[in-house]
Amino acid sequence: MKKREILVNSGLLIGSLLLTALLVEVGFAWFSTPLYRRDRYQHYFDVFQWNRERILFDPVLGFINRPDLDIPFENVEFSTHVQTNSWGFRDDEESLENPEVLLFGDSFGFGWGVEREETAESLLEKETGKKVLNMSVSGYGTLQEFLLLQRFCEVEEATGCEVVILYYLNDRYENRCPPGGMFPAMVKHQGKIRITEADEEALWDCVRANKQQPYTYLCRRSAILDLILSRFFSPRKHWADRMAIQFMGYREKNGAGAQEGLDEFKILEYTTRFLLQLCHERNMNLRFVFLPFYGYYLGDLPKPYQEEVAILERLEVPFINPYEDFSAANYYDLDGHFNASGHRKLASILTDFLGSEPNDKEEPAEP
Predict the structure, then answer these.
(1) How far apart, in whole angstroms, are the C-alpha atoms of residue 161 and residue 310?
(2) C-beta of residue 255 within 8 angstroms of C-beta of residue 188
(3) What sign has the CA pseudo-torsion 264, 267, 273, 277?
(4) Which of 12, 113, 146, 191 has its CA 20 to 30 A from that of 335?
């Protein structure tokens, strides 16, 4: 075969492969299901807190946001800017001085996907005229929020505040079985409760696995490469698989809290009792807000938070479970966090909730 014919045939083969790849990409773009697109997004999106430039290890809390950040944060559906104050909170420095409302939560309270002036905290401050401090940290569970409140009260001598906990579904799992031990955990042994310290190496292992790398960029750009890279070469997937194995063995092995049947709901109950005791000592009012999860509006999940509601009713903690007030339109379709309309809705709900009187309660019993 002549050299010219070899070159022509090679060119035709390469062209055919490229055309086929292009058609497959177009097919994925036009005919893939929303479920597939959301699943694929998990392979490459930027997780705010899993970045060494954004967080610091903390043995008590697991990690904190770096103070005085001034950085961009973006994903496919949004492009935002994040600034933090001297405590690492996504709020201004002035809000640290004698705040009237302390708002705790994870990425939803933090304002993942929206600018700070669009967050529920910022809108709540404008609607009520009260000084609100946004202490939400992306990735935190309820136990970390209690420990953060404890530290803040000791350092800033905060008293007389409204304490609002924004509770989201993944708090169950973050409280019960912290991935790799990188968060503090509640342990009960021989009738005594203690809280373990976080493991620094586990934290940086998670950061390394979730770091934005060339493969995440390629997975974002190409569905074909995503099928290959995300399933066989992704550090994120391998890390998640290890954590899933740990999570599945949680009850059988002596993982965090497992020794005496301290499941996610018992951990929430004990944590809430600790919160009530601290709030009583500081003349604070404690309230919970259950944040609806996107999957509920897609028909994937049942009516939310029935177990948590029973706990707060038993402890007489004021709460709201406003899942009927939201809709799928209040969330980013791929990302699953509140968009700007979701934060406006949440701010309105919080305004009404804070305008109501908390239940009168006697001094809480010891946990």
Answers:
(1) 25
(2) no
(3) negative
(4) 146
Which residue spans within the chain are E strands per DSSP? 55-58, 62-65, 70-75, 78-83, 101-104, 132-134, 162-167, 186-189, 192-195, 285-290, 319-320
Quote the CA–CA distance of 163 and 271 in Å, as a whole number.
14
In angstroms, the first-to-last Cα distance of the chain is: 85
Tokens of 294: 């996107």
The answer to whether the CB of 35 falls within 8 A of the CB of 300 is no
What would the pLDDT profile of 245-300 be if each residue is shown by its tens digit? 666 554 444 444 444 568 899 999 999 999 999 999 999 999 999 999 998 998 86
> How far is Cα of residue 243 from the mean position of the Cα atoms in its chain?
17
The 3-state secondary structure of 246-271, one letter per residue: HHHCCCCCCCCCHHHCCCHHHHHHHH
Q: How many CA atoms lie within 13 A of 186 on its CB side?
A: 29
- Alpha-carbon dihedral angle through residues 69, 207, 114, 309, given to the nearest 10 degrees: -120
Q: What is the mean pLDDT of the chain?
A: 87
Q: How far apart are CA 146 and CA 61, in angstroms?
A: 10
- pLDDT of residue 80 exceeding 60, the answer is yes
The DSSP string of 296-312 is HHTTSS-S--HHHHHHH
- Residue range 43-355, CATH number: 3.40.50.1110
Q: In this structure, what token pair is assigned to residue 266?
A: 């018992």
Ordered by start, the domain boundaries in the chain are: 3-31, 43-355
Residue 83 phi, psi dihedral angles, 5° rounding: -125, 140
CB 144 within 8 A of CB 137: yes
Give 160-169 pLDDT, tens digit per residue: 999 999 999 9
pLDDT tens, position by position, 92-134: 999 999 999 999 999 999 999 999 999 999 999 999 999 999 9
Q: What is the DSSP letter of 291?
A: P
Q: Which residues, 6+ apart, have CB-to-CB distance to 195 below 8 Å?
A: 143, 147, 184, 185, 186, 187
What CA–CA distance (Å, rounded) separates 178 from 61? 12
